[in-house]
Structure formats: C-alpha cells, structure tokens
Amino acid sequence: MSIVPISRSSALAKLSPFEQLANISEERVWLANFTSKQTRDTYKNAISDLIEFLELRSADELRAIDRAHIIAWRDHLMEHGASNSTVVTRLSAVSSMFQHLCERQVAPKNPVSGVKRPKVSSQTVKTPALATHQVRAMLDMPDTSTLQGLRDCALLHVYFYAGTRVSEPCKLRVRDLTEEQGVPVLDFAVKGGKSLRVGIHPACVQAIHAYMEVMRAEQGEAYSGDAWMFQAIMNGTDGPMTRLQFYNLFKKYAIKAGLPVDTVPHSARATFITEALDRDHPSDAVQKTVGHASITTTLAYDKRRKKVKDSASFVVRY
User: Fold this and answer.
1) pTM score > 0.70 for this model?
2) Residues 245 and 233: beta-carbon distance below 8 Å
C-alpha cells in the first residue's frame, strides 16, 4: 500500500498528534481498524497485489478503479495458480476497503460489488490430518538433550494436544500455564481478541515442564510471570518467537519425520479434532476446546467422513 501515504510531507511532523491523525488516509484508517495482525497483514498483501497488478501510481487511481479491473485481477490470480479460497479472501479484502471508502465518501462505488467469486467448499477443511503413528514420529523427533530440543518438543505437544491455530502458542507467557480445580490448563489468546482456557493432557504438561525447568535454571526469575513461554533460543533474545518461526519449526520436524510435504501446523489442529471425535468425545466439547464459534466449523475438520483406508478399492477382486 505504498501509494497510500500516512502523511503527505515532512511538514506534517510539525503538527500536533491530533492534526497528524486527521491527515491519515482513509485506506490506512480502514486497515488499522482490524485488531488481528494476521488479518491486517493478509488484507494489506491483497491491496498491495492489486496495486502492483494494475500498476497504480496514486490513491486517486486506486479509488477510481472499476469492476473490469477487479475481474481482470481475479482472472490473473486464478490463471497463476491461486486457490479459490485465496481469491475469495483477496476480493473480500478489496471489497471491505471500498465499503469503508464509500462510507467515508472518498470513493464513488465499490468495484467488487457484483464480481463473481469462485466457489469454496465449506463442508470440509482440506488440510490433511495425520495418523497417530505420524504424530508420534514428530513428537519423538526433537533432541531433548538440548534446550532447543526441549522447547521444540514442548511446542509440538501444545499443537497436537491443544489443537491450536499456528500463531496461538506465539502469545503464550509463563503465567499462562496454571491450574483450575487441580487440572493443568493453558490460557490462550485466540482469534477475535478472545481468551480460551484449555485443560491439557499430562503428556503435554510433562513436555512443557521439562522445557520450563531448564529455562528457569538458565534465566532465573527472569523466566516467570509475563516472560514469553516459547523464546527464540538461538539468538539469545527473550522476546517471543514469530509466527513464521513457529511455522518453519513445525515444517522442519514434519520433513525430518518423513511426512507428506503438505503437512503444516494446521494439520495438527485437523488431527486433534478428528482424533477427539474418533474417540467419541462430544462434538460440542471439541468445539469449545478449539475455540470455534460454530459447531459446523468444527465438523468441517472431521476427517472420519472420508477415510481413504475404507475405500471400496481394497475389497474388490478381479
């Protein structure tokens, strides 16, 4: 969004904070209104991609685009391999921005209005779930004789025993591991700015404690309370690991364990939900554990409905 400046000139630096904010473009106001960093990044990337495709040079050009421009961009995305869900997300981002611009009367219309969007199945989640032996292979992969291995082992346990989204362990602090009525729990900051308390399996607790004990031995009182639970050990920082670091860490162990190339952190969430439902755990309890607003979303992760091992191909004889 480089063509949408926060300020028009260095002269604005001499203005009061109120005056400076009054000069921020409506596009920036729209983007800043989202509380989720992930949403902001996704929507910013969508607008930037549109700007680059149309070779726009100013905010006025952006605000003047028409439906034909959006259709050409949509077709470009699809021709270059973007998934239907990616195309829909990008169109939604642009539509959301123009809705804001129209409300503020700085754009004449929403060019996304009326543009056909590719169909996205809401019945199933495509992210693959893993078999129990594949999960075990990943959990056993980190070298727990090192601090980094202990951290990675604990993190993988959180993914597979709590069914979290990829970024949720990033926000965990030491104080977020606690107890309620004698049951170990983790307090997650989840989607929508909400909090979610999850009771966790003893194996997960054991992995976290093993890591935390060594961290406390090394950092003392510094590793307590508000300290980040999972830290970037290699560079000696006491800050949280980034979402990308969590993603890459998960992928590294999936590759080491010889799992399919499409195994990602979201696979742990799909696996957790499928495994819990497969063991006849109540679907509403699973829904609450993973923080879904709707039971329909939870059931969309259930891979039991399409078990490839139950294929009729295995029973026919010729």
Assistant:
1) no
2) no
